Amino acid sequence: MSSRTSPISRPITIRRAVARDAKRLTRLVRGSGAYEGKYAAAVAGYRVGPDYIEAHRAYVAVGSDEHGGRVLGFYSLVLAPPELDLLFVADEAQGRGIGRLLVAHMQSEARAAGLDRVMVVSHLPAEGFYHRVGAVRIGTAFANPPAVPWDRPEFEFRIPPG
Predict the structure, then answer these.
(1) Is 53:75 a contact under the CB 8 Å cutoff?
(2) CA-only gyration radius of the chain, Å
(3) 110, 124, 111, 115: which is closest to 155 by C-alpha?
(4) What is the pLDDT of residue 38?
(5) Cis-peptide, bond into residue 146, ω within 30° of zero
(6) Cα–Cα distance, 109 to 130 (Å, whole number)
(7) Where is the N-acetyltransferase domain (predicted)?
(8) Nearest C-alpha neighbor of 123 from the set 114, 106, 135, 110
(9) Cβ count near 156 (within 10 Å)
(10) pLDDT above 60 for 25
(11) 49-95, pLDDT tens digit by residue?
């Protein structure tokens, strides 16, 4: 079974991102296979800086494996207005449930912050993922050239009270 389809075999820790994670998170965004080809320009100059990490609730999934606890994925929750701003899983770690773990953690953080909904504007290749993790399609974010020259699906996570 390949790592793209095998379940998590080692513990995953989710912790708050810190400033020293910035370069790793930027590399994860820029190196994402979901942003190859026509999508490459959308992340070519993207930067997750220490200031971004400080300003938002950013969390990383860290593997306890032979790679010495490397960052396998991350997300960022913006509270006002409530939005899942970023969610990335390293290409080699996809298909192992890490994205699902990050979404569950985000929902828990949103609930703790008193939110009842969290919106996400999805990248087209991630649309199926958001359906599978329980997000509901609520509309379309229309193209905004030159930054984003294509329409994107908008989803919403409904956060039930705890």
Answers:
(1) no
(2) 15
(3) 124
(4) 86
(5) yes
(6) 18
(7) 12-162
(8) 135
(9) 18
(10) yes
(11) 999 999 999 999 998 765 557 899 999 999 999 999 999 999 999 99
Question: Which has the higher per-residue pLDDT, 78 or 8?
Answer: 78
Both tokens of 6, joined, read 């095998």
Residue 148: pLDDT band (50, 70, 90) is confident
The DSSP secondary structure of 37-75, one letter per residue, reads: GGGHHHHTT----HHHHHHSEEEEEEE-STTSS-EEEEE
Tokens of 54: 């400080």
Whether the Cβ atoms of residue 69 and residue 21 lie closer than 8 Å to each other: no
Residue 77, CA distances (Å) to 6, 54, 80, 87, 141 in order: 27, 12, 9, 9, 19
Tokens of 160: 């039930």
Residue 144 sits at φ, ψ, to 5 deg, of: -135, 70
CA 46 – CA 123 distance, rounded (Å): 15
Counting Cα atoms < 13 Å in the Cβ hemisphere of 110 gives 27
